[in-house]
Amino acid sequence: MHNYSGELLHVNNKPLSSLPNYVMLSDLPETKKAETQLSASLAPKIVEMVEQVRREVQKPRVWDWRTDVIRHPSFTKLVSEYRKTKSQKALNQVYQTVKARYNLFDRQDSPQVMKSVLDHIR
Q1: Dihedral sign, CA of 96, 110, 70, 100?
Q2: What's the rounded Cα separation, in Å, for the pair 105 and 111?
Q3: Which of 27, 43, 54, 121 sits at a 20 to 30 Å CA gap from 69?
Q4: What's the DSSP call for residue 17?
Q5: Any bridge partners for residue 10, and if so which?
Q6: What's the CA angle centered on 63, arms 51 and 89, to 5 degrees?
C-alpha cells in the first residue's frame, strides 16, 4: 500500500511532500510518529467508509418515480400524508424513507427533487 502521509501531513499549511527538504524531514522521528498516528486513526475510518459505500451501491436505483415511489405500497401512506399536509416534516419523512431504500443519483438526492416529484407526478 502506498504511503500518502506526505500529502496528508502539513507543515505551515503546506503538504509535507511539497517542502524542498521533504526527504530529510521524512526521516525524522517526529515525522515517523506522526505518520504512525495518522495511519492508526485513518484505518478504521477508511474501512467504515468503504462499508458504507458498499451498502449504498447494493441498493436499487429509482428509475420510474411513479412505480418505484408514488405507487409503491411501502410509500403510499407517506406520499398521501405529504399531499394532504404539504408540510416540510412529511416531505422529509418521504425523502428519508426513499433514501434508505434506494441508491439515489446525485441529481435525485435532495428534498427539493422529492418535493417536485410528489407535487407533479400522479
Answers
A1: negative
A2: 13
A3: 54
A4: G
A5: 15
A6: 75
For the purposes of burial, counting CB atoms within 10 Å of the CB of 120, is it exposed (0-12), middle (13-18) or buried (19 or more)? exposed
Is the separation of the CB atoms in 121 and 70 below 8 Å?
Answer: yes
21 three-state secondary structure:
coil
Q: What are the two backbone dihedrals, phi and then psi, of residue 78, each rounded to the nearest 5 degrees?
A: -65, -40
**CA 47, 16, 46: angle at the middle one, nearest 5?**
5
Model pTM above 0.85: no
What grid cell was written down for 4? 500518502
Contacts of 38 (CB under 8 A, 6+ apart): 5, 8, 9
**Model confidence pLDDT, tens digit, residues 14-69:** 888 888 887 777 788 988 898 888 888 888 899 999 999 999 999 999 999 999 99
The helix/strand/coil state of 63 is coil
Residue 72 and residue 46: Cα distance in Å, rounded?
A: 35
Phi then psi for residue 14, to 5 deg, are -125, 140
DSSP conformational letter for 98: H
Residue type, 34: A
